[in-house]
Task: structure prediction
Amino acid sequence: SDLGPVMAYRALRFARNDSTALPGFDENLFADHSGAGQRSLEDILAELRIVREGSKLLFDSFDETAMRRSGIMYKIELPVLAVGFTLIGHQIHHFRVMTERYFPLLQTA
Result:
């Protein structure tokens, strides 16, 4: 999922007290041009794990002051901490989808 790196970038900008309003992005456009159909499930899972670990390390580097800072993301003010919760929730969603839809296909292959 491209949302992880995009949201981590936003969190970094907000944590560093960058007040520039950040635009939204078209997640469907990103998905259409991701090339996911040409990648193995193992490769996609590895990317999700690495992005998750990178996001965790990034958030671990933020002190309490940085976590309370906020920024404008697509016309909505959002604190860094809320961006982190959004990342976690989105990753949980993706792992559930993979577990329900794709892991059973691996067992029948």
Remarks:
- Residues 3-108 form one domain.
- The helical segments are 3-15, 27-32, 41-60, 64-68, 80-108.
